[in-house]
Amino acid sequence: MTYSGEVTVGGPADVHELKDLMITKIAVGPMNNNAYLLRCRATDEQLLIDAANDAGALLGTIGDDGIASVVTTHQHGDHWQALAEVVAATGARTHAGREDAGGIPVPTDVLVDDGDVVRVGNVELTARHLVGHTPGSIALVYDDPHGHPHVFTGDCLFPGGVGNTRKDPVAFASLIHDVETKIFDALPDETWVYPGHGNDTTLGAERPHLPEWHARGW
Q1: Given pLDDT bands bounded at 50, 70 and 90, which one contains residue 27?
Q2: pTM metric for this prediction
Q3: Origin, by domain of life (predicted)?
Q4: Which of 39, 95, 125, 206 is 20 to 30 A off residue 86, Cα-Cα?
């Protein structure tokens, strides 16, 4: 089956099979949050991005192999509501952006800064600190050596725009600057974008609309 990235709460997960990495996307909770389970194909080690809600569904997706790590993309509550239960069940190490860790009610084992590498088995993900939606939001970039990059953007980039900055022009200016310089300027159009809610997109699909986003201010 071809991966589409279109998932619904209560529905099946969708699996993006890359040569070195398997990415399983599942939607959970009343805010239609996306959680992503990454599995290194060489070692079978697993990492979860955003234990957002519905620990039972997430643990069922994780399966008996467990997870080594959980990365929380930012401090908003809809992205960590199942974190305590998932960590208790798996013993996973927790990662979060340094500036957001204090807003997450589960202790963060690894404070993540811009440019840090987060590993799952033999696979390396590079963290990018994006300021504006929250002070410490992070995206994770997987630069697939066999294909195009993949980026997990939390709530900082979606199809159609950057994340919510609550009509604060300073926060919007910060977020769109970081998204442009650290994501759009650094990665090619083929880059696949996995957001914190809703459907996936690519940088190529969104790039032509950057001037519109600047003009409207959100």
Answers
A1: very high
A2: 0.98
A3: Bacteria
A4: 125
pLDDT of residue 138: 98
Backbone angles phi, psi at 118, to 5 degrees: -110, 130
Return all residues near 52 (Cβ < 8 A) that are at least 6 apart: 28, 29, 31, 33, 34, 35, 78, 79, 80, 81, 82, 196
- CA torsion, points 138, 152, 64, 7, in degrees to nearest 10? 130
Mean pLDDT in residue range 85-93: 98
Map tokens 């930012």 to a residue. Answer: 74
- The DSSP output letter for 28 is E
Here the tokens at position 117 are 């590498």
Give the DSSP letter of residue 209: G
pLDDT tens-digit profile of 133-152? 999 999 999 999 999 999 99
Torsion angle, alpha carbons of 166, 94, 142, 124, to 10: 150
Residue 4: name the closest of 31, 23, 29, 19 by CA. 23
Q: Phi and psi (nearest 5°) for 127? A: -85, 140
% of the chain with per-residue pLDDT over 70:
100
In angstroms, the CA 147 to CA 18 distance is: 9
Residue 140 structure tokens: 């994770």
Q: What is the pLDDT of residue 178?
A: 98
Buried residues in 60-77 as b, exposed as e (16+ CB within 10 A): ebbeeeebbbbbbbbbbe
Which residues, at least 6 apart from 38, have a Cβ–Cβ distance to it below 8 Å? 21, 22, 23, 24, 46, 47, 48, 49, 120, 123, 125
- Beta strands 161-162 and 192-195 are unpaired
